[in-house]
Amino acid sequence: MDRILDQVTRPQAAITETVVDCLGRHYREVNQELRRLVDDGAHRLRLTHVAGQRYLGTNLQRPVQITIEGVPGNDLGAFMDGPRIRVLDDAQDGCGNTMNSGVLVIHGSAGDILGHSMRGGAIYVRDDVGYRVGIHMKEYGDTLPVIVIGGTAQHFLGEYMAGGVLIVLGRRLPPGAMHPSRYIGAGMHGGVIYMAGKVNETFLGKEVAVTALSDVDRETVEGHVAAYAQAMGMDLEPLLARPFVKIYPKTARPYGRLYAY
Amino acid sequence: MALSLATASFVIERDPARCIACQVCVRQCANDVHFYDADDDTVRAHDQSCVGCHRCVTLCPTQALSVRLNPLEYRPHANWGPDILRNIYKQAETGGMLLTGMGDDQPQRIYWDHMVLNASQVTNPSIDPVREPMELKTYLGAKPERLEIDDHGDGLTLRTELTPQLELDIPIMFSAMSYGSISFNACESLARAATEAGTYYNTGEGGLHPALYQYGERTIAQVASGRFGVHLDYLNAAAALEIKIGQGAKPGIGGHLPGEKVTLDISRTRMIPQGTDALSPAPHHDIYSIEDLRQLIYAIKEATHYTKPVSVKVAAVHNIAPIASGIVRAGADIVAIDGLRGGTGAAPTMVRNNVGIPIELAIAAVDARLRSEGIRHRASLVAAGSMRCSADVVKAIALGADAVYIATSALVAMGCHLCQHCYTGKCNWGIATQDPYLTKRLNPNIGAQRLANLLRAWSLEIKEMMGGMGVNSIESLRGNRDHLRGLGLNQVELDALGIKAAGM
To answer: How many angstroms away from the CA of B386 is the closest CA of chain A?
Structure first.
């Protein structure tokens, strides 16, 4: 947790920023340039006029800081290992696909399968996300993937989830409104989902159960949401004001009795 | 335990005149078939548990053992055979899906056995491969539309930028088998044999063990739906990446490595906690279309800086030709197709035996389709799904494959006896198991040598057959269906294979 906080809050003012204008450029060319700049020692990059360029941050295995102006394309930070990316707009599908480490901060909404098979690092989204977010996230060793969604999520949230922490704050839900997501945690067999606001239990996948937060859960939520608030520049308190529920897998072996041995 | 209605598949015959009660069989059998009866100083057997792997028979120092099919004969019935009855008994007892290992064991038509090869007689000379150069070198990857060459006056240089290629000394690679489905020693044997023979082995979807990174340049690393062990170092360690969409033994379904097989070492390689189930979902959740496939292909190309070919592996199914066309258009450098008889460490029996089409028909359909669309050069075609001998390989290439994948043949070379019980994790040959007592039975030095021997033997035979046809380069054989004729096939089958009947 401290490490993630450190990653998003470390003062960087002293480091110069390199501006890369992406106007009308193909992703392959942009990514090649980013790679060259990072190889040459760039620590801070600002990408301007980004419009749908894919795979930004994919092949940069360094803790470089990237600010994106505009809407990046699909697979932002796919296989990402190290970079800290801040998107000042919405993002599209596949953010953090099979991501290993680093931080994605999205000051807007993001599309489907955000954090697909993510193994480490953190993804923070200010507003809403699409379908199948956090699908097959898994944790390993001392790496713990964390996704915090400010708004709400579409169906199959945390599907097949095998590890990690997925938090949905429901910021923009009208008071008393339910999260729209159906089949939450379908096939989930590890990790944990925390949702603020009302969750209709008939919308849950059959492999999960819902409960109130323990003290340990509360501490976990507060830690991750504090990091989120800091990354987003928001006040922490209102984010924690709504009561949370915990959604967890009923068994680590949902597919135990399938076969005739 | 309640009485099982399923009778034993095998009976153990022990010759009392030869048995010295040394108990080698007792120690060798992970299924606990043999046991020592101290009262009688005799070794006895629970026939019911025997899977027919022949480990005990092979290692018995006095050749006292034989394993036979249980002679128990059910009342003959053309429709309700003994296997079908046993399956129903088993399911009535457990309520579970039937599980099996290795490839389809049903007597579907094996088209390799209905195709014969040509040879030169009088009108064109055959070539003696022992004395004349015979080229098996194969490059896998996209080939350019045409080559542009600059003439400097004092020499020529290639202006066309070539895309990355895999260079094979022999057009046979080891197909995907994950660490988890097979033992570390088996993986190491494959890696070392591939290195020695100048070909490639495939990690399967279980990640790459740190000790095997040294064979990276002879490694094809898989990216499958579970994304186990997939990270930038893994992608960059391999010579090529393969997106696994499907597998011939179980098209359309996912995989499931049960938690008890996820040992500490496997958990490191797959990058998941020890003892947890490793679930490979049936689809890739980022691929719902050809466009999505293209997105993952290029994600991998971006991650590896366009330095490695990307393969897409699919199972051979009904519409394989347009599927392959889509894969090529999505930007794959290699299309790997796995047929109905392809092997597996575990698959539902019904799926293994009933889903998909034989690889022979798939190669013919795909090669013809890609040629007709003018895109055959844009990807290499790798065929898998039961290449049992070098003649199968030659026929696959004559039908249109660039190279083949072998897995079952490789396992047999390492000692596998096709007992089809890989899923139990009790492989007495030390191949499909993670039990340290069993895995040490496969010595990687010997395993690698046996695999390299197999590849050498097959390459000699391939050269011999090519020489007979008057062909001195595998390039000239590729897709050359004039070298094939069909035996005992009807016209529909001949047309599907794109070959003439023998005698025509």
So the answer is: 25
Half-sphere exposure (Cβ direction) of A88: Cα atoms closer than 13 Å: 10
Amino acid at B502: A
What is the DSSP track for B31-63? Answer: T--EEEETTTTEEEE-GGG-----HHHHH-TT-
What is the C-alpha separation between B432 and A208, in angstroms, rounded? 33
Q: Do A58 and B98 touch (CB under 8 A)?
A: no
Interchain CB distance below 8 Å, A189 and B279: yes
Is A123 part of any domain? yes
Sign of CA pseudo-dihedral B286, B292, B297, B302: negative
What is the rounded CA–CA span in Å between residue A59 and residue A133?
Answer: 23
Would you call A207 helix, strand, or coil by DSSP? coil
Q: What are the tens digits of pLDDT across the range B407-454?
A: 999 999 999 999 999 999 999 999 999 999 999 999 999 999 999 999
Task: Put the strands of the sheet holding B115-117 in their side by side order.
Answer: B115-117, B484-486, B500-501
Question: Which structure tokens are listed for A137?
Answer: 């996230």
- Measured between beta carbons, the chain B residues lying within 8 angstroms of A132 are 285
For residue B69, give both structure tokens: 């099919």
Question: Residue B91: closest CA among chain A residues belongs to which residue?
Answer: A260
SS (H, E, C) B167-187: EECCCEEECCCCECCECHHHH
Residue of A nearest to B422 (CA): A261
In a domain? residue A79: yes
* Residues 6 or more apart whose Cβ sits within 8 Å of residue B164: B141, B240, B306, B307, B308, B309, B333
Angstrom distances, CA of residue A57 to CA of A44, A74, B232, B354, B384:
12, 12, 12, 44, 36
Residue A255 lies in a domain: no
Q: Walk me through the domains of chain B, giving residue ranges and CATH numbers.
A: 10-96 (3.30.70.20), 138-501 (3.20.20.70)
Q: How far apart are CA A83 and CA A44, in angstroms?
A: 10
A contacts of B298 (beta carbons < 8 Å):
54-55
Structural domain boundaries enclosing A199: 2-249
Residue A152 parent element (H or E): none
Nearest to A58 among B95, B227, B299 (CB): B299
HSE value, Cβ hemisphere, 13 Å, CA-based, for B478: 22
The DSSP string of B225-267 is TT-TT-SHHHHHHSSEEEEE---TTSTT--EEE-GGG--HHHH
* ipTM value for the complex: 0.92
Answer yes or no: is A260 within a domain: no
Residue A111 Cα, gap to closest chain B Cα (Å): 12
* Angle formed by the axes of helices B320-329 and B290-303, nearest 10°: 40
For chain A, the average pLDDT equals: 92
Helix, strand, coil in percent for chain A, rounding step 5: 20, 30, 55
CA dist B435 and B437 (Å) reads 5
Domain count for chain A: 1
* CB-CB contact of B276 with B373 (8 Å): no
Which residues, other chains included, contact A260 with Cβ-Cβ below 8 Å and sequence gap of 6+? B90, B91, B93, B94, B95, B96, B97, B98, B99
The CATH number for A226's domain is 2.160.20.60
Number of inter-chain CB pairs under 8 A, A vs B? 123
Q: Please write the tens of the pLDDT for every residue from B470-485.
A: 999 999 999 999 999 9
Provide CB contacts within 8 A for B122, sequence distance 6+. none
Q: How far apart are CA B362 and CA B383, in angstroms?
A: 9
**Residue B340: what pLDDT?**
97
Residue A181 confidence (pLDDT): 93
Asked if A35 lies within 8 A of B231 by C-beta distance, the reply is no
Which residues from chain A sit within 8 angstroms of residue B305, using beta carbons?
A: 35, 59
Q: B231 and A81 in contact by Cβ < 8 A?
A: yes
Residue B344 near residue B411 (C-beta atoms within 8 A): no
**Burial category of B382 from C-beta neighbours within 10 Å (exposed 0-12, middle 13-18, buried 19 and up):** buried
